[in-house]
Design goal:
By secondary structure, the protein is an alpha/beta fold. The protein is built from eight helices and twelve strands. Strand 1, helix 2 and strand 2 form a beta-alpha-beta unit. It is globular and about 60 Å long. The protein starts with 20 loop residues before the first helix and ends with a helix.
Length: 263
C-alpha cells in the first residue's frame, strides 16, 4: 500500500467549534490532500453533541471544498439502528432509520456531506462501520464479560423482545485497512464496512468463557424493547474498495485476551 504522511492535530492546535482557520493553515502548510474526520464531542449522545458534531463537520467540509481535498468520513451502523428485525443485512441501498441522538447525528452528517457534493463538488467517501473492537475498551460489554469470566462470576447478557441482540463486530486492524484503501481509491459515495457476520452477545460470552476456560455461567436480563440486529452487507466494499476483513471474532477475542495477559 502507498505510504502516507499522517498529521494528527490536537484539540489545542485546532478547535473546530470556533472555526476552521487553524485547520486551513495546517492544510496549506503541510500540503494535505485528504482529511479523515475522526473528531467527535467527548459526550456524543445528547442534543448538544448533535449541534457540536454538525458544526465541526461543516467547518471541515468548507476547508475541503476551499482547498479541493478529499474527505473520508466514518459513519456507522447506527444510521440503521431504528429497524426491528431478527437479522437484517444492511446494504447501501437500505434507507437510514436511526434511533437515538447518535444515529440521528450520523444520518444528518451524511446528508450535509451529500449536499456539499451536489453544490460544492466535495470529493468524499463515507465509510459506515459496524461496531469496532480490539482498540481501547469498547464495546464495553466485551470487557465486562472478560472481567466476569476471569473472576468466574455470572455473566449477564441481554434478551430483547426479538431475541438475543446480534452484532457485526469488526476487528480494529480490519477497520484501519478500510481507511487506508479509502485514502488511495478514487471513489465517491457510501460504503458499508463490517465483518459481514452476525454474532449474538450470548455467542460472545460463550467464546470468552471457552477461551478462558472459565466457570462462569451466562444469564440474561429481559429488555422490553427491540434490538436492530444489523449485519453489514460488504459486497460493495469488496468490489469497489477491494477490501475485506481478515480477522474472525474468535481470533479477535483471542488477541484481546492475550494482550490483557501481557499487561
Amino acid at each position: 500500500l502507498t505510504k502516507c504522511r499522517i498529521f494528527k492535530p490536537s484539540h489545542n492546535q485546532i478547535d473546530l467549534i470556533r472555526g476552521a482557520v487553524d485547520l486551513d493553515f495546517l492544510i496549506k502548510k503541510e500540503n494535505v490532500d485528504c482529511i479523515i474526520h475522526l473528531a467527535n464531542p467527548r459526550i456524543y449522545t445528547d442534543n448538544e453533541a448533535m449541534g457540536t458534531s454538525l458544526v465541526m463537520l461543516k467547518n471541515v467540509i468548507d476547508i475541503c471544498c476551499d482547498n479541493d481535498i478529499k474527505l473520508v468520513y466514518p459513519s456507522g451502523w447506527e444510521i440503521y439502528s431504528g429497524y426491528r428485525s431478527n437479522f437484517l443485512l444492511a446494504s447501501e441501498h437500505l434507507p437510514p432509520q436511526p434511533k437515538g441522538v447518535y444515529g440521528e447525528t450520523k444520518t444528518l452528517c451524511e446528508k450535509i456531506i451529500e449536499y456539499a457534493k451536489i453544490y460544492d463538488n466535495l470529493d468524499y467517501l463515507i465509510l459506515r462501520f459496524s461496531p469496532i473492537y480490539g482498540g481501547g475498551d469498547k464495546p464495553k460489554f466485551i470487557y465486562n464479560f472478560i472481567d466476569k469470566a476471569v473472576k468466574n462470576e455470572v455473566i449477564t447478557s441481554h434478551q430483547y423482545l426479538n431475541g438475543y441482540p446480534t452484532l457485526d463486530l469488526l476487528y480494529v486492524e480490519d477497520a484501519i485497512s478500510a481507511f487506508t484503501l479509502a485514502i488511495e481509491k478514487n471513489i465517491t459515495g457510501s460504503i458499508n464496512i463490517g465483518s459481514g457476520v452476525g454474532h449474538s452477545t450470548h455467542d460472545v460470552a460463550e467464546m470468552i468463557v471457552s477461551q478462558l476456560k472459565s466457570e462462569s455461567r451466562i444469564q440474561h436480563k429481559q429488555i422490553n424493547d427491540y434490538a436492530p440486529n444489523i449485519v453489514m452487507d460488504i459486497s460493495k466494499a469488496k468490489t469497489a474498495l477491494g477490501w475485506e476483513p481478515h480477522t474472525s471474532l474468535t481470533t479477535g477475542i483471542g488477541t484481546i485476551l492475550q494482550n490483557i495477559k501481557k499487561r
